[in-house]
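the two lines:
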Amino acid sequence: MSHPAERRLSTSVLIIGSGGSGLRAAIELADRGVDVTVLGKRPRGDAHTSLAAGGINAALGTMDPQDSWQQHAADTLRESYLLADPRTVEIVTRGAAQGIADLEQLGMPFARESDGRISQRFFGAHSYRRTAFSGDYTGLSIQRTLVDAAEQRGVRILDDVYVTRLLTSDGAVFGAYGFVQQDGTRVLIHADAVILAAGGHNRIWRRTSSRRNENTGDAFRLAVLAGGRIRDAELVQFHPSGIIEPETDAGTLVSEAARGEGGVLRNARGERFMERYDPVRMELSTRDRVALAAYTEIAEGRGTERGGVWLDVSHLPREVIMERLPRVYQTLLELQMRDITREPIEIAPTAHYSMGGVWVRPEDHGTGVDGLYAIGEAASGLHGANRLGGNSLIELLVYGRIVAASAAEYSAALTAQPRSRAAEDEARAEVDGLLAADGPVNVRVLQRALRELMTRYAGVVRSEEGLLAGLAELDRIEGQLDDIGVHPDIAAYQDLAHAFDLLSSILAARATLQSALERRETRGCHNRSDYPEQDPALRVNLVWSADGGVVREEIPPIPEEIAALMSEVSVDGKLVE
Amino acid sequence: MSTATLDAPTQDDAVQSFTVTFIIRRFDPEVDDEPRWQDFDVEMFATDRVLDALHKIKWEQDGSLTFRRSCAHGICGSDAMRINGRNRLACKTLIKDLDISKPIYVEAIKGLPLEKDLVVDMEPFFESYREVQPFLIARSEPGAGKERVQSVADRARFDDTTKCILCAACTSSCPVFWTDGQYFGPAAIVNAHRFIFDSRDDAAKVRLDILNDKEGVWRCRTTFNCTEACPRGIQITQAIAEVKQAVMRGKP
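prediction for all of em together
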């Protein structure tokens, strides 16, 4: 049986990424009767959404009647250190209840209260109980529900397709190009509109909660080469507790619940170090503060030999651990043979979520490139300098609906679509070129070097000196691209996928380093040792373009009814250096 | 040695490794008429998984070894295989839990068409799955922007069967399925159960009719192979029994 060298497909709306945001948009398009095709580089059941554990936010007001979407918006804006776009925040929080209802309609098995309401619990820094969940596998349940619903509607989902380029002509998108990872078959897809739902860039750090080929910055590169821009690339959430060993699983999360249930943090000297950073909230302080504290302890030589600190739950009753932290118990037992009811866990901060992303308009998530939209972790605007747990999942549901509607209208309004043979040939030639690369340099070695440099120079704490050193190192890595070798074996074209992952990672790293240089202040997740204070003049978003330029973008004022509900942003315990 | 923490790292935590022999059932349709067994010696740690061994073989010894894998932590369901005669996920099977004094046999799951090495054609499996309409079919309308209510007991009714990851370990361990592959198989019934017993769903009768077919639930002989094979610990045989009762008496 011979395969065609190139498959050619055509669809009204093409979605790149089969995680929660891509599938939610696909379902909406199918319900509107619009032809839609979804491409994913991973199997649909195993998109990154499936790893989310905790929950999904909406101010339903059924658990706490005082809650309102305005309060949810106020909490989100406050915790974003005022860098979230108030329009985006309003759209998400206002639409959140509908998002939950939609998901419930699609069959999501939410946990329930005794009278049948959807159960909601507290999450860090929320004023009320507004986090709905399904055990400690909420993301998996959402992903499964959306896959079932998409298949029910006959949505065409193609797994294992790696997209290498968006195709544009005269500033408008007309499709995408890529290849099937299993056998190398090329795929050329013509589409009226394209929705980019391909995740963030947190896999470009050494320790990360993303798996090998996830969140390598693909969406950044695809958007930028098509004419899009990146907003706030420097704003990356570091989760305080990722495991250190085994190396292959470094960065795997120990849920925040471990601290929530009474877990204690100690440095290698046995000191309960949160006393020095946030004596009131201690271990229950916000993610950015706990991550910074752990980072500082390690950087100043009070960490463990392997570069971590201890998270100890062994003083808790065994039943509490088994009942409230079953996944943590199971994970540590499997990965480290460690019984957390007896021993502490060695942890270090781990890159977790890209709060910045492709620049989009708040109202429809258009990217400024005609016909191209971005959504989910690939997009930006909701989280600012610190993300509230549970907000990213609701963003998928709210914007999935909105972006699908916009793309459907755009498609319907097209009277003709210019295509470009040159763009198609360029995409083909790029893949051909990499397949012909036969140099001595291993792609994965470069990828590892890039992740090391990001961890060293653009981790929890940054400085001008370090960021410049990082950029110089990045130039050296990029300079070696001419000498790489790409050797797909007979089993699969993984090596080619890794080469493209590397190209995306390099672009995402450059955007991050250059934006971080420009943010000469300390705010939320972004800590500058040379600028330890927050600078009111930098209450702006930073927008990066392919030429390396970073421009400031004003953030519109917060509506009065929401501003009135915001309490003061405390910077106590922010940077103890 | 009371100051051990300040000394150079002590070597007693240098973990011991073992040479483990894997005997893998290989098949390349382009070359082989019949599958053949091939030995590989691999250096492993007690905490490694069988999936790590397969990776090591692929990367260091034989790049042509073909298997499916994705998440590597028991969620995606892509690496179910037969390990020492038992269906398990390669990514969840620790070396320390196997008897490494003897070779470890690894082969593709049974009952589905073998494509290459450890990869089978999953299409017949997913065909059965799709036939039971594995999605919520609800006619009740709770009003715009509102949720439907569901009691805690009703939610608990189908909790166990929401855990399925569609790895096919159960279906491909079922002797009835092996005989002719016509039987729907445990996984399809588990996923029908998930919706039949969801109080919000209105299509139980449709699914029960489908499963009342001669290739449906009645072919289950309660051998419990499926329950033993399930990497998620779902009480599959019990779920099938509940579906059988519902066929006879209607949805409770």
